[in-house]
Design a protein that fits this description.
The protein contains ten helices and twelve strands. By secondary structure, the protein is α/β, with parallel strands linked by helices. It has two domains: 130 residues, Leucine Dehydrogenase, chain A, domain 1 (Rossmann fold), CATH 3.40.50.10860; 130 residues, Rossmann fold (3-Layer(aba) Sandwich), CATH 3.40.50.720. α1 crosses α9, α4 packs across α9 and α9 crosses α10. It is globular, with a radius of gyration of 19 Å. The chain starts with 9 loop residues before the first strand and ends with a helix. This is Shikimate dehydrogenase (NADP(+)).
């Protein structure tokens, strides 16, 4: 039975620009109803110049908290009272929790990835992995993997202006977490071959494989894949990228980013409510919504 809105109903939501396309309202409102939490979740188009006031509204309206998406993930850091370890290392947040007026900033993307790997039977703690890309999603995954105990991470990115900016951040993450993190040029095929040969997991955190690049692969040579190298692609639409098809052809485990999307939401839900999101109920709904 759906929860009835009452005088005690609390609000959670998404601050983004644009925000109306998000799957989060469906995920969280369904989860609130299934777990008996008296709350609703709405999407809000928040202009950058109004972000500070909008975050203050979390306190003023006694909201459970919010999710943040582009373009607010980095700017929102300055408006919260405290940061989780991962959020501090990354310098970005996607979730704010309201603890009696004290706002705590978290980043749950990396948690979502690590939980999806676990649910798919991919064991990477204490081992080595290779990740393609060093942008926002990649940095969240790298940071959480390092915090959780992945031993070594080889990061490959195009050697552009961003490459120089991310290098010191990765060095800082490595120093604090005692994880070996090395940044390499994606064009260095010899290094890529050596890294993959020593890795127990390959992650694609680039947008190559997503529309309009659905026929492209982020890996220059599919022969670098092997049967005992699981492949995780953060992309979930299309459900099977060219990289995942190539991995499956070698007999390797191939996992798309739907689980990461689901479990990053579940992590935020637990932070707000203390309850587990009913992911088995929500996953099919999410799959159907993505297809529309």
């Amino acid at each position: 039975m759906e929860n009835e809105i009452s005088g005690r109903t609390r609000l959670a939501g998404l601050y983004a620009l644009p925000a109306r396309h998000s799957f989060s309202p469906m995920m969280h409102t369904t989860a609130f109803q299934a777990t008996g939490v008296d709350a609703v979740y709405l999407s809000f188009d928040v202009q950058p110049e109004r972000l500070g006031q909008s975050i203050q509204a979390i306190r003023d309206l006694d909201m459970l908290g919010i999710n943040l998406s582009m373009p607010h993930k980095m700017e929102a850091v300055k408006y919260v009272d405290e940061l989780s370890q991962a959020a501090r290392l990354i310098g970005a947040i996607n979730t704010i929790v309201n603890q009696n007026g004290k706002l705590i900033g978290h980043i749950t993307d990396g948690i979502g990835c690590m939980e999806s790997l676990k649910q798919n039977g991919i064991k990477i703690i204490g081992k080595r992995m290779t990740i393609l890309g060093a942008g926002g999603a990649a940095t969240a995954i790298i940071t959480q993997a390092a915090i959780d105990g992945v031993e070594a991470i080889d990061v490959f990115n195009i050697k552009d202006d961003f490459y120089q900016k991310i290098e010191p951040k990765l060095a800082m993450i490595a120093e604090e977490t005692h994880c070996q993190i090395q940044l390499h040029d994606l064009a260095d095929e010899k290094q890529l071959s050596e890294s993959l040969a020593a890795s127990n997991l390959l992650i694609n955190a680039t947008n190559i494989g997503m529309a309009p690049k659905t026929e492209q692969m982020p890996l220059p040579d599919p022969s670098l894949l092997r049967k005992d190298l699981p492949v995780f692609d953060v992309i979930y639409h299309p459900a099977e990228t060219q990289l995942l098809k190539a991995a499956k052809a070698t007999g390797a485990k191939a996992v798309n980013g739907l689980g990461m999307l689901l479990y990053q939401g579940a992590a935020a839900f637990k932070l707000w409510t203390g309850k587990e999101m009913p992911v088995k109920q929500i996953q099919p709904l999410l799959e159907e919504t993505i297809k529309k």
